[in-house]
Amino acid sequence: MTLNITVFTPANIVQISDRRMVDARTGRVIDDEANKALVLHCADGVLAVTFAGIGRVGNLRTDLWLAESLQDAGAAELDCRWACNHIAEAATGWFRTFPSGLDKRHTFVVAGWCDGKDRVVSRCWTISNLPHNMWTNSMETLDQFLVRPVTTSSRVGSVFVTGLLDSLNRRERKRLFTSLKQRTTIEAIESWGVEAIRRASADPASHGGIGEKCTAIALSPAREVRSLYYGTDGVPATYGPNLLWYYGGSNWLVTDIGSLPDGNFALGFGGGPTPVKLVVSSIDRWAVPSPLPAIQTIAWKHRITDARHRNEDKMESAPLLILMPRNSTQ
Fold first, then answer.
1. Which residues neighbour 284 within 8 Å (Cβ) at sequence distance 6 or greater?
2. Mean per-residue pLDDT for 39-62?
């Protein structure tokens, strides 16, 4: 089911979610390492997307369904609001195919930096089949997904939480909101948010639907991305969520990167003056980060589709998608 926390400050947006996946019918834990994060570079901004609800239907993972659906629709070529509308339309059609009796409660949380009239502004939406913009114990759902804006204020800081809210009582929620608003660095926000999710996972009200392992995505107004995996050993690791962007006439999707070697380096995709480029060998799909010894390699999956809404074959400068170094405190 999951618990998601999204924090907005003038310097960054941080989205934190646990990684547990449970069987919607039996409540049995299926996976404690499930990815629930997507980073999407649109024409007018960069978005982090996570979700609470159904994590897998049969052998199809929700995170991969979402990433490939957005890629096939050319969402990276258009604006952020268009991407939200596509998620709502696609999810409505997909969920109608699910068997009756399944708990279909589901909410996508989309947050990021988008171009405004004269400056970059923070934006947040929920895309949900719940009757209200709040997770409840009732299994009542709508027949369609609705896009609802969430009010944010990066100037003073704001926090949005969704998922199994019963595991955070009102007092704990107030304490969480107050504490997160007082934290300004990425590290402080992530640390406090992860601990809040772990406390919620131990609450009987979670019914085992929240895990201790978490993913934290941080976005800067410059469209940089930092992503960390928080395991149970206390040492966060640089992590690659699903990444989707447009470059040079194609839509690029990279998935299943997993944990990356630690160190002061940035991982970039899409061409241009990046310290690391996507390299595909004739045998398998690999990347060789230049700041690391050449013998060290990182495996991932990638998928490339032609542009659907743009005509140019070449771009002089690509919007880079970067995994910022772990020691960044932007």
1. 299
2. 91
